[in-house]
Every structure is written in C-alpha cells, then in structure tokens.
C-alpha cells in the first residue's frame, strides 16, 4: 500500500483540521484530483492527489487534527507499509506502583505549575488542566483540594469546546506572539475634519500606513528571533485584520504602496467576498510585512494590537468621534480618529515608531 501523508503546508504550520473528504475507499483517482480539504492558518486548503490509482483506506475522520507527516490516504499498490499508521504518539505504559511522590514541574522551564504525581493523576481523572489551577500549597505546589475545587467549578460550566479550524490557528498565533514579541504601544489622536463626505476610511488608512512606511521603513520588516536580525522589506504587503464569526482573519493585500485608491477598494471588496465564501487561497493569507486593524468600526477608542511574528508592527484605528478641540483659537467640535501603534521593541526603537506614527497622522489630517 502506498501511503500519502499530510504534506508541509508552509509558514511553519504543524497541523491542520480535516473538514471534508472528497474521496471514499474504492474510488479511482487521477493525479491532482482533489482528495480532501483542511483548514489551517485561517484558510481552507484543498489537497490534491499525488498518485493515480484506487483508494484503499482513509486514515482520518472529519474533524480530526492531523499533524504534518501523519498518514491520510492509502492507495492500492506497492509502497510504504501502513502497519504503524494507527500508532498513538505519546502513549506510555507504566507499572501500577508509585515509586516516589516527588513534586514535579509541569510545563516548560522553571515557570511551570508544580504538583505531585498523585495530584497530576487526580487532575487527569477529573479532566482538570493543571495550568488552570491556583495552588494553595507551600512554594506554589498544587494540592488535591485545589484540583477538586476547579473540578466543581467546571462541572457547573458549559462543556469544553475544543478550538478548531480558524479559531485554533488564531489561538496558536496569539500564543506565539505572547512568547516571542517584546511589545510596546504608542497612541495619539488625529483630526480628520478636512476629509470629504463619504471618504473611504480603509483606503485612507492604507494610504497613511504607506506614508508611515516610507518615512520610517524599519516598521515594514520581519524579525528573525534566532539570529536576532531584522530584514527591512521594500514591498508593502499589508495584512488586514477582518472580524468574522469563525474568528480573526488576516488576508494580505499585496504591494499596497503601488496601488491607487480604486484598485485598493476593489481588492478589499474581493477579499471580503472571498472570506464570506471561504475561498481565500492559502497564499493570500501568508507573507504580510505589516498589519492594519480598523477595530473602531465595532467599538473601542484605543487598544494594544498584537504583533504576530515575523512582522514587527501593527497599526490600529479606533472609533471615529466628534469632540471639542481648540482650532484656530476657538473651541469647536471636529472629527477625531484615535490611533494605536504596537511594535516589537526588539526590532523597532521608540523613535522609529514615533516617526512612523507622525507620518501616518500627517497623511490622515490632509484633505
């Protein structure tokens, strides 16, 4: 039997959720015929067949989280044996005796939670994740009573709902950002009273972001953590944060510095239509060099948007409002847009961030 395994999907992705089989055992398929669809990195990806032949076996079910290199489809014919395809990675056989009740750290490094094997076994039995438990023992040790307390609370809550698809990817990206980035945020307000009626807010924000990148290119960059190096990028490929019922999507508008407002608006409209239809090609979800979040269309004045590696900056726009300001010596009500710029302080200095934001504000304040 020839075994087709989940291939590398790029961008450092390690897993995908199987959402649809396009074949069944016994089907004859041709090379490049669609085999299955998966969701990962906030995009639906259709995986074609690398072989022509008859499908002998499917190794996963809809809803399974499949890791890179895991078997997907078995084809009739000579090839890799499938004897280990059902192996459960991580299953450990052990004896029935507890040799020692030594306190062990659960987690990475020295900052993990601490509990004895008996307490960890109790947590496993009750379905309690130790990271959720507040310890009451000496030196931060989790006691059995702590686990039982959390179990009682969970018994009164809604059943746990595993994150899947786009929400799972969002959670993983946010965890990566929290673990790697040294974030700092600066905020300011810009007077946009000079805008004409019906101004395209998103297009204006993109134009202003381009002006910021030209004034301070250091924010249109990727940071390489391992090498502690920064790559300033010439082309501006803008990730645009979009709120959808399934979670946060960040499709990429390519080369925004060379596109006129009409072309940008057409690209934004096409992007939203593709998101609604769940047909965004995976390559359009990858490779952003900087990000824009217009969260103010929902609510909020200021925020600390999250920088997702390898990018080093994200510009957020809050809710536009009218407020009294001093203008030409008089107190008048004018339209004000709040801005929040979060940057990775490992790669961007405060001065660079300030100059970027100043250029953004200057562009937004113009007619």
Automatic annotation (TrEMBL):
GO terms for molecular function: acetyltransferase activity; lipoic acid binding. Residues 114-151 form the Peripheral subunit-binding (PSBD) domain. Keywords: Acyltransferase, Lipoyl, Transferase. InterPro entries: 2-oxoA_DH_lipoyl-BS (IPR003016), 2-oxoacid_DH_actylTfrase (IPR001078), 2-oxoacid_DH_E2_comp (IPR050743), Biotin_lipoyl (IPR000089), CAT-like_dom_sf (IPR023213), E3-bd_dom_sf (IPR036625), PSBD (IPR004167), Single_hybrid_motif (IPR011053). Residues 1-76 form the Lipoyl-binding domain. One of its GO terms (cellular component) is cytoplasm. PROSITE patterns: BIOTINYL_LIPOYL, LIPOYL, PSBD. Its EC number is 2.3.1.-. The keyword Acyltransferase applies. Its cofactor is (R)-lipoate. It is an enzyme of class 2 (transferase). Belongs to the 2-oxoacid dehydrogenase family. Forms a 24-polypeptide structural core with octahedral symmetry. This is Dihydrolipoamide acetyltransferase component of pyruvate dehydrogenase complex.
């Amino acid at each position: 039997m020839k075994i087709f395994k989940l291939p590398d999907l790029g961008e450092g992705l390690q897993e995908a959720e199987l959402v649809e089989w396009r074949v069944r055992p016994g089907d004859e398929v041709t090379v490049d015929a669609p085999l299955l669809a998966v969701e990962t990195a906030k995009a639906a990806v259709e995986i074609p067949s690398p072989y022509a032949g008859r499908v002998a076996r499917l190794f996963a079910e809809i809803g399974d989280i499949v890791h890179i290199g895991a078997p997907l489809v078995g084809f009739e014919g000579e090839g890799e044996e499938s004897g280990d395809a059902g192996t459960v990675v991580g299953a450990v056989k052990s004896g029935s005796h507890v040799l020692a009740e030594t306190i062990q750290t659960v987690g990475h490094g020295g900052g993990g939670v601490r509990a004895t094997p008996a307490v960890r076994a109790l947590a496993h039995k009750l379905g309690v994740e130790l990271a959720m438990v507040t310890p009451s023992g000496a030196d931060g040790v989790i006691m059995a009573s702590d686990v039982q307390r959390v179990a009682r609370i969970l018994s009164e809550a809604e059943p746990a709902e595993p994150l899947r698809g786009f929400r799972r990817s969002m959670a993983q990206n946010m965890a990566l950002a929290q673990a790697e980035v040294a974030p700092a945020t600066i905020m300011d307000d810009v007077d946009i009273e000079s805008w004409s009626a019906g101004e395209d807010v998103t297009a204006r924000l993109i134009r202003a972001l381009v002006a910021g990148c030209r004034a301070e290119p250091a924010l249109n960059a990727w940071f390489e953590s391992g090498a502690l190096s920064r790559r300033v990028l010439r082309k501006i490929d803008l990730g645009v944060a979009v709120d959808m019922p399934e979670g946060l999507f960040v499709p990429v508008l390519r080369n925004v510095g060379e596109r006129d407002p009409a072309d940008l608006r057409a690209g934004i409209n096409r992007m939203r239509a593709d998101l609604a239809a769940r047909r965004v090609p995976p390559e359009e979800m990858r490779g952003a060099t900087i990000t824009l979040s217009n969260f103010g269309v929902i609510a909020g004045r200021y925020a600390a948007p999250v920088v997702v590696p390898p990018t080093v900056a994200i510009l957020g726009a809050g809710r536009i409002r009218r407020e009294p300001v001093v203008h030409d010596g008089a107190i008048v009500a004018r339209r004000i847009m709040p801005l929040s710029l979060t940057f990775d302080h490992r790669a961007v200095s405060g001065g660079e961030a300030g100059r970027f934001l100043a250029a953004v504000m200057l562009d937004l304040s113009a007619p």
